[in-house]
Fold each of these.
Amino acid sequence: MTANKTALGVLAAGAALTLAATACGSGDTAEAEGGLTPVTVGVLPITAVAPIYLGVEQGFFEERGLDVTIETGGGGATTVPRVVSGELDFAFGNVASLIIAREQGLPLTVVANGMTTTGDADTDYSALVVPADSDVTGPADLAGATVAIDNLNNIGDTSVRNSVRVAGGDPTDLDFIELAFPDMPGALDNGQVDAAWVVEPFLTVALEQGATEIAGNFVDLHPDLSIATYFTSEELAAEDPETVDAFTEAMNESLAYAEANREETVQTLTTYTEIDPALFDQLRWPRFPAEIDRDALSTLAELMVTDGIIDSAPDLDALIR
């Protein structure tokens, strides 16, 4: 069993115990104030969550009766059990983490898209990069290389292996190490790693420091891959579908607004990140369509099975509301 599968199995047990003692859903945890239903959403402090901040600012959630509180914190390892227990009503998480969680029996359901690859490696939000002095010119040259990713047995190593595979290299001859994204540019610069999978804004930082891009790993996987989505618990979706529908509608409008108003989206970063504004014009952005491409998720799931991260492909109709 992989490390992630083991960890999520433990989380499943803990979340189930918490669920028995915690009321789930905004309708049970708090009374509506001023006619609005309070909901709490867990996100990461990254560029890709700008649409939800923009949507709150534009009043899209309030128009649908929701009073949104955004909590910034860790990734799926912390947000998944908090959503299952009802501590968070919704959260933002990458799709591989949610596929793994579903296989472990965690009752989660996707309610809105979060971000999608651009489909163009030269402009995408994510890339596989190497130091400026590297002899590596493409993914096939990474035999025996040490590659930094943010979480083992997840979307990072799956997509990197795939880039190596499609380039004709050996996807099994890689040594992955876990590093936080902010630490990756330094690790490349000091020779700690041979390559790194980096996302914005750290991709721009790495390129500014001289790193060279050798692959668009998400684009290689599928040109319409939804990288992350917003999700909730099956219990909240069943007990309070009106709130979940309202969140989905507001989130979809937020995504469309962010896509159509890039300058406003960029400026939103000043409200929740510490990104140097001098980098704003150089940042690459994902796309923000409302639609989740199921063919792309099927491709990802099949690769996760191939790599032994999950045992079988998920039922996407059960995963996506």
Amino acid sequence: MLYHLLYPLHTEFSVLYIFRFITFRTIYATITALVISFILGPWLINKLQTLQIGQSIRKLGPESHFKKEGTPTMGGTLILLAIVLPTLLWADLTNIYVWVTLIITVGYGAIGFVDDYRKVKQRNSDGISPRQKIFWQLLLALGAGLTLYFYQPFTTTLAVPFFKNLAPDLGLFYVPFAMIVIVGASNAVNLTDGLDGLAIGPMIIASGTYLLFAYLAGNARLSDYLQISSVQGAGELSVLCGAMVGAGLGFLWFNTYPAQVFMGDVGSLSLGGALGTIAVITKQEIVLIIVGGIFVVEALSVIFQVTSFRLYGKRIFRMAPIHHHFELKGWPEPKIIVRFWIISIILALVALSTLKLR
């Protein structure tokens, strides 16, 4: 909104020309998200406590988690507000990629909100059924995939990291591929959200990484120099990524150990969905496996655990997702969290190296 209101006035007030630059608007979207988080965070936490919207803990989980019973949850609503409002303020709202990502973010947030609400209302950790959750996620992802497929400037080629001349055109198959990326990223982040600050830390790092990817993909000169896929208009997603970084940092202020509030599915599903959508638009889908390596490992640990138990009646880990395995091995919660953050930083650097290693 500010972009559309103020930039047209640059002919009369030259200082307003600065609104043309994505870098400027990205910085202030990040700052705006932080300010919103810091202002609304304490109010939201108090409101959730007043309404007795507390976290239900699985009785099969680690005993150390029982003391977290009743901690305010659904704090992801703060993350959503701190992403959506700055994006609407600072981004170019004529950009289709911004709207596709926002719709997925809010839509997945709505799915998570219903799930969290049922958990609170029923006083258990079940929420809506996995089939219902996946159905609505797939439906929204299908809408995003089809929108991108029929949007003329967008191509259906798949960029393969480390191979500059390998970019197969998936054609119509790009739609289900995009759906898998978006839904997979959303649920992987959701599975990671099990310890105080565990999911939001890697999420901040991943958002910052894709902020750079989006800016480079949207800049024809830089994308040509780096020999990466050029996506006209994708640079505007830098503003949204900046808002995600700011919202994540602001939420981490309240979610750091010991957490004052949990994000709930309303936060984890929306953040993962947004990350997956941005990966698809910027043509960095495969690199998401590296950037979001923590999320991938968490999801795979659950898949392997369930598969092994059903086929052989044996568990690979003491408990899945894998962060619970380390808890049961005696690792203190803060140690697990910080080490996962460190790994995320290393993975982000490896992912950024793919820009030159081709």
